[in-house]
Amino acid sequence: MTTSVDPDLSPIYGDSPTFRMARQQLDAVAEATDLDAGVLDRLSVPKRAMIVSIPVRMDKGGVKVFTGYRVQHSLTSGPSKGGLRYNPSVDLGEVVALAMWMSWKCGIMNLPFGGAKGGISCDPAVLSLGEKERLTRRFTDEVLSIIGPRQDVMAPDMGTDEQTMAWIYDTYSMRVGYACPEIVTGKPVEVGGCIGRREATGRGVTYCIMEALAELNLRPHESTAVVQGFGNVGSVTCQELHQRGLKIIAIGDRYGSIRNLKGIDIPALAKHVATGKLVKDFPGAEPIAADELLTTPCTVLVPAALERVITAENAGKLACRVLAEGANGPTTVEADAILSRSDIFVIPDVLCNAGGVTVSYFEWVQDIQQLMWSESMVNDKLKELMLRAFHQVLKLSRDRKLPMRTAALILGVEKVAREKMIRGLYP
Ligand code: GLU
Which of 47, 105, 117, 415 is catalytic? Predict the structure, then answer.
């Protein structure tokens, strides 16, 4: 069975390859399960999508108008939840796909949230702090009618950070007339953020990798890793893997890639980057071409940057034993077909990078209850939930001889579908 909702939908979502990919994944789940046809149709499109124009006064004078999006894929399980992305590639189709993936991610982790995502098409690297603040505050104001601590809760994503969340928190609180920290997660700890939220995605990726190595009887001290991206997810993953004895032999980002087969000194690289320098200029490694990064032989490959980087062209050339998807949607459907014929152990994005939204959930709960958890409580609970989800996915994959991705998506989609069936259709 596939959904009867027009798979093209190009008049609405543009010709978005990311949206198409999310829909193909949902169709694969439908084929492997006996989902109710009506529920499947409802899950194949977002519940609500808002497009706003955001006029911003620029530092050099004049006004520039940006386009922003907030998409709520599902509100069935609780408030919708998901990040806000600032990147030039942002368009409606991409945001819808990312919102859909958030629904499955929250389902797999059994969190009381639906999926959402937002984004503004802009290049944050060329915006001043003041311009970013004005952009963020005006965007918050424009989407105010559809967000709320019980409706839709934003968090950081690519190009946004704790400061962005603090501006959203402040703007929302000024408009409603009281401090409402539970409107966003991923805030600075001083204003109700959760200790360990910034590191949570990378830690969750690491817990999954360590579990996969154990399943495959591979020793961490004899294992190597290659990481694409040295942002919030990639850098923390490198540090956590390094602490557990893995050798990180290559790292790359959009400015360039480096390799050192003896192992890159991760604490030294973190210091180098903290002083504003680029990964590619790190003296302790050799530069390599961008297309060599993902195909470097290693035990664990971690794409932790953009979507659709593992494609039909390079999937057959991957030389890793474990593919741990720190990014959202790094592997295309065509690449997936190639990987499923290989012996690569895939830890799919909706499981692998779910640590971020899991600690976001902890933050939201703490803000509502007005109490604070300790760092060890956050990390212990994160590990417990990540490992439980990892083993549920692995078991389903083994029991039904399905790829890990299909198993993960089935768990996520079925949870949302079940809740929709029980709640029924209004009116
Ligand atoms: N942006 C992150 C993600 O893609 C986190 C979302 C959240 O914490 O709500 O999972």
Answer: 117
Residue where a domain terminates, one of 116, 147, 179: 179
**Cα–Cα nearest to 16, from 119, 107, 108:** 119
For residue 68, what pLDDT is reported? 98
Spatial separation of the C-alpha atoms in residues 72 and 49, rounded to whole Å: 6
| Per-residue pLDDT reduced to its tens digit, 179-214 | 999 999 999 999 999 999 999 999 999 999 999 999
| CA–CA dist 309, 257 (Å, integer) | 15
176: phi then psi, degrees, rounded to nearest 5: -90, -15
We report the CATH number of the domain holding residue 138 as 3.40.50.10860
Q: Which atom of ligand 1 is nearest to the CA of 105?
A: 10
Q: How far apart are CA 212 and CA 391, in angstroms?
A: 10
The two structure tokens encoding residue 427: 């009116």
Q: Are residues 21 and 161 in the same domain?
A: yes
Q: How far is CA 270 from CA 140, 143, 265, 275, 277, in A?
A: 32, 36, 9, 9, 10
Interatomic CA distance for residues 135 and 265, integer angstroms: 37
pLDDT, one tens digit per residue, over 4-27 is: 777 777 778 878 999 999 999 999
Q: What would you measure as the largest C-alpha separation in the chain, in angstroms?
A: 64
- Does this model's pTM top 0.85? My answer is yes
Q: Reply yes or no on whether 117 is catalytic.
A: yes
Dist. CA 325 → ligand 1 center (Å): 14
Give me the CATH number covering residue 287. Answer: 3.40.50.720
